[in-house]
Specification:
mainly alpha, single chain, 2 strands, disordered C terminus, about 575 residues
């Protein structure tokens, strides 16, 4: 507010001097650009657009319009978040002034044509050739690239990946043909990592991220919105390359930086990246995690970011349901109807894109709960709810969580229910996704892929392999799920007298002349499930899923008799902290 007051005071003094746009052109242009940007930063987007239009009427050249045009597009986007066509139409019109002609809603064929042209411009070189080019001195070219990058950034935020793709390849083609780079080039290179991630071309995403790092080092970092992608993209890509646990602190550090710079939307998104990484890493659902979610909720509420408020409440409620917080969990852990978050009430308060996003997130959380508590009917229901929602998600951890548990659910739903194609579709999508990631060495993909293969092949050998990999990676929740599913599978087979050849994955039916008694081999096999179910119980207790552990103990009496020295007990002080938080 103080800055805006000073800039307006300067504009008033200039106006009193006579004809500021004629007599003090450079100073007046700078003052009015700062007024427009200040209004936009304060959320006064109508005023920002009016000030930008004043600049359009008085500038002497096209390049002098670029800063105001950037502000105008940003404000237009903020005012029309629900109406994509409204802002993109004007943005494309502005780009045309700079001889960058792109369609408002590109088709796949148009994007593909741009990719081919980009490939020809590369002339057999890799993307790393850009790192050798000099910095552009042609102001007209640099200005056009800057403006195109503004629209590109907005297209990525709005997940309009065809428009983002065609702009990115066009900008890079200009740079290749002119053999120059600008400050915006490294953000464009990084923006393509989102496109490659969506297309599941992870090797390309890794290469472009590395090239972007080299290019970034050639320019001093700025502190505005143009600095978002250079920070977010590398951590997002690294989330595929290093364990999720190691990405939590970088996301939280970036969250603090962006909040300090007055970029709350992306700053809060980074905080949510960290929270989903916590869930993916199978870290304890304790008071420390709860405290972080409470801080995010309070920040979001104070900034009027309703979606982040509801999302933090949703995650808290889901975690309370899993951990069994006596004061805050739902009566039924499979529902989101607790004192912290009520799904029906929360959805009723939302509309438009916010409603769509929150509906997706509640569905993902309920699917998560359905797998943990092994509720087949709810798994099936949630898979149908997710049908039609793209597999890609800008939020890497949320995508990982959703695809992990969608894949497990799709393979757990009994075959007789799989007559509509939905389950097969999700099983295929998730297995292919994690196979591609595993091929490029992602440490986060292999444990999930092993779990999916175990559920698909159903052999003791495959379950043991999945359990070993998950345990080694510290993914206690997945190790618990695999132990439980293997134990339940062996238990059901022991009841029917079916044995499994552990080496070949085939089954052997053991006839019995006395129906009331099992053969000796079947009896031995029938005891085998106990070891897996005990391991499942121990893993759930280590993770902090007390209600789930209780569910297993109630179903299998032998689990309730486990030696108390090996059973997990909630620390009294920790319980007191949880009740206070």
């Amino acid at each position: 507010d103080d800055a805006l007051f000073l800039f307006r005071a300067a504009a008033s003094r200039l106006n009193r001097a006579g004809m500021p746009w004629r007599d003090h052109y450079a100073l007046t242009l700078d003052v009015f650009n700062n007024i427009a940007e200040s209004e936009a930063a304060l959320g006064n987007h109508e005023n920002a657009m009016l000030e930008s239009e004043t600049i359009f009427e008085n500038v002497k050249s096209l390049t002098d319009k670029v800063q105001a045009q950037s502000t105008y597009i940003e404000s237009l986007c903020e005012l029309n978040k629900e109406d994509y066509n409204m802002w993109v139409s004007k943005a494309v019109e502005i780009l045309a002034e700079h001889e960058i002609n792109v369609p408002e809603s590109p088709t796949y064929a148009q994007v593909r044509n741009e990719v081919i042209k980009f490939g020809l411009a590369l002339r057999g070189r890799t993307i790393f050739c850009l790192t050798k080019f000099p910095v552009a001195t042609d102001e007209k070219v640099a200005s056009a690239i800057t403006l195109a990058n503004v629209v590109l950034r907005r297209a990525v935020v709005n997940t309009r990946m065809f428009l983002a793709g065609i702009l990115a390849y066009r900008i890079l083609r200009i740079a290749l043909n002119k053999k120059i780079i600008t400050r915006d080039i490294f953000t464009v290179v990084w923006s393509l990592t989102f496109t490659f991630r969506k297309r599941e071309k992870f090797k390309n995403a890794f290469d472009y991220s590395e090239a972007g790092l080299i290019l970034r080092d050639r320019f001093p970092l700025q502190t505005g919105k143009e600095d978002i992608v250079p920070h977010v993209a590398p951590i997002a890509v690294s989330s595929y390359q290093i364990p999720y646990q190691d990405t939590i602190q970088p996301w939280l550090d970036l969250h603090k930086q962006l909040m300090f710079r007055g970029l709350p939307e992306v700053g809060l998104a980074c905080a949510m990246f960290a929270m989903y990484a916590h869930l993916c890493a199978s870290l304890p659902l304790n008071a420390l995690f709860d405290g972080k979610l409470i801080l995010i909720e309070e920040m979001s509420r104070s900034l009027g970011r309703d979606l982040f408020v509801e999302l933090s409440l949703l995650l808290r409620q889901g975690c309370y349901n899993i951990s069994g917080n006596k004061l805050k969990s739902s009566a039924d852990p499979l529902t989101l109807t607790g004192p912290v978050f009520n799904e029906t009430e929360a959805l009723a308060k939302c509309e438009g894109a916010t409603l769509k996003s929150l509906k997706r997130d509640t569905t993902v959380m309920r699917l998560y709960l359905a797998v943990i508590f092994n509720d087949i009917d709810l798994m099936e229901q949630m898979l149908f709810e997710l049908d039609g929602i793209p597999a890609y998600d800008n939020l890497v951890g949320r995508q990982h969580l959703r695809l992990t548990f969608a894949g497990i659910a799709a393979l757990l739903v009994p075959k007789y229910k799989k007559n509509d194609g939905v389950h097969e579709k999700w099983a295929s999508i998730t297995i292919k996704f994690f196979e591609k990631l595993a091929k490029v060495g992602s440490p986060n993909a292999k444990p999930v892929l092993m779990c999916l293969h175990a559920l698909e092949t159903r052999s003791v050998v495959s379950f043991d392999a999945a359990i070993a990999v998950c345990s080694e990676a510290g993914l206690v929740h997945l190790a618990a799920v695999m132990n439980e599913q293997c134990g339940l599978w062996l238990y059901e087979r022991s009841r029917t007298g079916e044995l499994e050849d552990e080496r070949r994955g085939c089954t052997m039916w053991l006839p019995s002349t006395e129906p009331k008694h099992q053969s000796e081999a079947a009896l031995d096999h029938g005891q085998k499930h106990r070891a897996y179910l005990k391991s499942a119980l121990n893993n759930y207790q280590m993770w902090g899923a007390a209600p789930k552990a209780k569910q297993l103990e109630e179903r299998f009496a032998f689990l309730a008799k486990t030696d108390s020295s090996t059973r997990w007990k909630r620390d009294a002080q920790m319980q007191a902290v949880e009740e206070l938080v």
